[in-house]
Every structure is written in C-alpha cells, then in structure tokens.
C-alpha cells in the first residue's frame, strides 16, 4: 500500500504542474494586459500634471454661500435608512443655506421608521419635500428616484418655475458646504457633473472599510481626471453628481418612449452609471469637478462604506452586475475607440474576478509543489523564456500599482493609511473575487426571469453624527 502511494505521488505532482502552467499562463497574460491598460492611464495623468492640465482649483472663502443662480432639486432615495437619513437631511440643510435648494426625500409607507427619522431631520424647514412611494418597498433605487422626479415635475407645473439642475445623493452622504454651489455653477456650462467621493476611515474596520478609501483615492484622483481631460464619458457615481434640468428632461423622454416612468431605468442596478454614459453618447458635455475649499479640504461627498466583508461583497456584486453584465446588455458597445476603451475598463469586473481567482488558486498549487521540489522532486517541464518574461512584467506591474496606491492614498489620508493601502491589496482582491461570483449568480437568475431587487447596503452611522460625537 505504501509503495503504491509513492508511485502515484509523482503522477499527482505532474498533474499539478500542468495545472500550474495553465493557471500561470492565464493569469500572467491578463495581468500584463491589465498593466498596459493602467500604465496608459498613468502616463496620461503624469502628462496632464506636467502640462498643468490636472491642477486642482482652490475655491475662495465664501464660495459655500454663493447663490445658486436658479432652483436646484436634490433627490435622496431612502429605504430602511432610519439610522442615517435624519442626520443627512439636517446636515445638508445646515451646510447648504441657499433658499433655491429643494431637498426631495423618497420614502415608503411600509418603512415608517425612515419616514419618522426624515421628518425629524427636516424639522420645519420648508425646503424639504418628503415623498412617499405609492408602491411598497423595496422596489429599486431607480424606481424611487423616478417617483421623486415625478414630484419635481409636479412642483414645477404648480409653481410655474422650473429647476435649473437636479442633484443626486444617498441617505448616508455627508455633503460638503461648497459642493452645491460648485455643481450648480458647473451645470450652467455642461450637462452632467460629478464630484469626488471620499470614503471616510473607520477605526473599527481598517481593512474592509479601508480598502474603499484606497480604490476611490486612485479612481477619483487619477482615472476620472484623465477621462475628463481626454473627453471620455464620466460615469455617474449616484452621489455628488448632477444633471442640467433640460438634459434630464431629454433623457426622461427617451426612457418613457421605451416604456419607462422617468429618466432612471427601474430594471437597472446601476441606473446612475448608465445615465452618465448616456449623457456622453447623446452628445452631452460632462465634467469631473475636483476642487478644494479655502482650507485645503477636498470638495467631495463623504460617507461610511461597508465595514463587514459580507456587505462589501454584496455592494460590489451589485456594481459588477449593473455596470459590467447589465451594461453589456443595455448599453452595448460603441464604435468609437475611446468610448470602447472606457467601456472595457468599466466592465472588467467579471474578468478581474476570474484572473484574481486563478492567481490565488495558483498560489495554493505552489504551496503543494514547493515542498515537493525541496524534497527532491524535479519538474518535468521547465518554465519557458516567454513565461519568465510575463511573470517578471506581472511582478513589476504589481510593484508599480502598489506605489501608485500608496502615493494617492497617502496624499488624501496620510502616510499611515498609505502604508495600509498596500497591505489591504489582498483584502480588495478577495472582495473582488467573491463579488464577481455573486454578481454572476445574480445575473444568471435574472436571465431565468427573476426580477431585479434593491440589494441595498446597510448603513448604521452617518459621518456627521460621528463628527459631533468626536467633538
């Protein structure tokens, strides 16, 4: 029995070596291709910096209270957000004192806790409109936004005064005082505007919640800056983004001709991203607005992102499902090279999940083969020179990416968070792998006829409330 096991062992090792080779070829090829894609963005960003086209403008003091130049509607959908919606409304009303502001908050009759918290946050401020959806929740975020859009249209008809722009926010957002006036001003010149999103660090979750800080610091300080400069589509993040009123009306007409009830696609999980792309594809002008206030703070939407692994996976699965899988179906592919490149970048979620999964499976195989090699087992097939080149490029690309992640995170959050950003890369990879699998399963269920539901993120605290506690 023992001799038979010794005979079989080399065969198992040879088979594992074959698996190792295939995994290595698959992972290294896509790593190199992805590295070339990212390096192109890096090179463009460096060129923009050197030529002065990526400078972050600093606002003067008093920019926060500047008149909006027209009425602005801010839409906030809310389902089971009683823990944060009251603080969000109260903080927004205090941060944005302009009389032209109207805050539309969408609630549901079967969610009395959120409705009560929203009423408490609004107080007696006449600038707040609480809208109760006729349908029981949860529907979808887009459906709730369409109900708010209908309320905006009804108010315009009653008052005879049209809004100049429409801004989107979520219940967990902590708005910047200068953001509203800055977006309102920008929307007098363009059709769509997006400001940065800044995930706030959470001491109780430095790894799971922290990896959002790293990713947004890189995306909203570099990638979107490049997209804005080269005239590519700016994807809407769903928060801290706004549309010129006329543009949103045109998008609503197009959607209604397709059988929709408003500008937001109720059957889409990432209706905000889709709208940002549609503005570009219909000939509209977009802008990514990166500013700092008089104190040097980034004018951005701050929020707490999921602090537990399960909720982080659920949230990113929804993004991958909506942007990559539904986006492929709903938006198709453009014949413009620039637009196609950006669509490929936006939809790489499932492929990234597969490549990272292969890389970690390769690591598991190596943990078996490495001890065998130390004990005298020799590989039957040496690594080819081309494979060695791919492996070397992949390793150097990883170091390059880690350097960028450290630098951009450290610039926004400090050196400690910059160092953690490198250590958090495995956490981000695990979330990406599991989110990709969950998104694929959800997409397959929709192909079988299952309805899309609002698989929303749970929020337990609002940054403004935590600031008050700290003080």
TrEMBL record:
Subcellular location field: Membrane
Top-rank taxon, per record: Bacteria
UniProt-listed Gene3D superfamilies: Spore Coat Polysaccharide Biosynthesis Protein SpsA, Chain A (3.90.550.10)
GO molecular function: transferase activity
Nucleotidyltransferase as UniProt keyword: no
NCBIfam families found in the cross-reference section: PRK14716.1-5
Name of the protein in its database record: Glycosyl transferase family protein
Species this protein is from: Novosphingobium anseongense
Taxonomy of the source species: Bacteria, Pseudomonadati, Pseudomonadota, Alphaproteobacteria, Sphingomonadales
